[in-house]
Amino acid sequence: MEEIAPKIVAGERRLTMLLMGRWQELRDGRRAPLVRAFKTAIPPDLLADCFTLLPAETPDRSRLHDIGERIARVSGITATSLTRSEVPGNTLIGVASKWLDRTLELGAPVVDEGEFEDRHGARILYRATLLPLANEQDEIVQVLGGARCKAGAENS
């Protein structure tokens, strides 16, 4: 009998689709939407699954700036002063931010999905997006990450 891998459910897709849709709408011919316009256009219930990184000279030195309530709880991370390199790779924020360098290089959103083993050894399925946000001079000054996850199927 063929084993069917668990799929990402609608809630995970909804978050990335809504964030990407708003990002496209608010660009208004710019490289990326303005930070303040984008963040005020996102409903608070979606921001609970988001985090913000402030780009630095290298992606690993970028700092966490904001962490939504749900993604903080799932990741076990509440300190917003951490650099990207200090965020454990076996957390939802860690896997969701792994394409930060690509996002900054492209100046465009990156969507990722997959699975990872969390800090408790559980198999976790996730879907994430990273969205660059700009200032008035059209420079990328923040990257908003959004991610949701669910436990994967038990290995038999």
Description of the structure:
The chain is α+β, with helices and mostly antiparallel strands and 156 residues long. The chain has a single domain, classed as Beta-Lactamase (2-Layer Sandwich), CATH 3.30.450. It contains six helices and five strands; from the N terminus they run H-H-H-E-E-H-H-H-E-E-E. Strands 2-1-5-4-3 form a five-stranded antiparallel sheet. The longest helix is centred in the first third of the chain and has 18 residues, at 10-27. Residues 1-10 have low confidence and may be disordered.
Outline of the structure:
With 156 residues, the protein is α+β, with helices and mostly antiparallel strands. It has helices at residues 10-27, 35-41, 44-47, 69-75, 92-96, 100-106, and strands at residues 50-54, 63-67, 110-117, 123-134, 140-151.
Question: What brief labels describe this structure?
Answer:
31% helix, disordered N terminus, alpha+beta, Beta-Lactamase, 156 residues, five-stranded antiparallel sheet
The mean pLDDT is: 88
CATH architecture: 2-Layer Sandwich
List the total number of helices: 6
* Number of structural domains: 1
Strand residue content: 25-35%
Let me know the CATH homologous superfamily: PAS domain
CATH topology (level 3) name: Beta-Lactamase
Name the poorly predicted regions: 1-10
Report the top-level CATH class.
Alpha Beta
Cα separation of the termini? 13 Å
Rounded Rg? 15 Å
Strand order of the largest sheet: 2-1-5-4-3
Question: From N to C, what is the helix and strand string?
Answer: HHHEEHHHEEE
Shape: globular
Per DSSP E runs of 2 or more residues, the count of β-strands stands at 5
Helix share of residues?
Answer: 25-40%
Oligomer: single chain
Class from helix and strand fractions: alpha+beta
